[in-house]
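User:
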Amino acid sequence: MFAVNAFMCPRLFIARLVRVSLLASALWLVACSLNVPAENVAAAPARKALHQVVVDDLVSDTQILRTDAAGLAQAWWIPLEFWQASLGRINPQLAQQVETVLGEYSIVAVVQADVSALGGFVFYPREEIQPRLTLTWQRAGVEERVLQLVPNPNLAVRNLIQQLTPLLGRSMGEMGRNLQFFVLADRDEQGQRIVNPYEPGLLTIHLAASEAQPATDLNLDLPLNALYEPRYCANGKPAHITWRFCPWDGKPLQQ
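Assistant: Predicted structure:
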């Protein structure tokens, strides 16, 4: 069994696991991606093994940034697959067991800031973000579902977040110190996963209006491209996993 206190060790463990940059991703761990032969044009999408997922690409797929003259808002959805892919490069056995601790949750990190008169950022504290934060999940033909925040997740998850905050502060400065982490319940009444990164759908992180910024929706289209082997159109250009047709020739892609 995976011991809960595996996430209660010193910060060195977390430092080896995650390093996130401001706009895209910056994990020290980079997995190897597999090449798809040219003859597999428009082939049905195949999932990568999680230890072969390029973690930088996965982080990029799960981050959304909105900026305007008033300020910025950024969200990062952290599904179970992120931890499995990251840990798979350090300890494959741990990667197989991580679902014991994190399987019923996913995490979203949110940062929001106004632009001051001097051009700097004035960050919102957690108590100003949480009341304005709503997360929803929408699948085609299914009623939109509001995702529930978990006020008291298990000890391992709480400890993980406590370790991440100072780490990101050191690597990202004020932006990292002002990232606010929220834990989401990711199982329904039947124990089935709610937001599956392999299934089509729309994950929306909604921030209601503040005094300085209008309401904003940070949208993530699923499935996540980084979790799949590359596929290609007839002209050799890569086809995103969410595409149903090649934009260059209009030919359908196998789903």
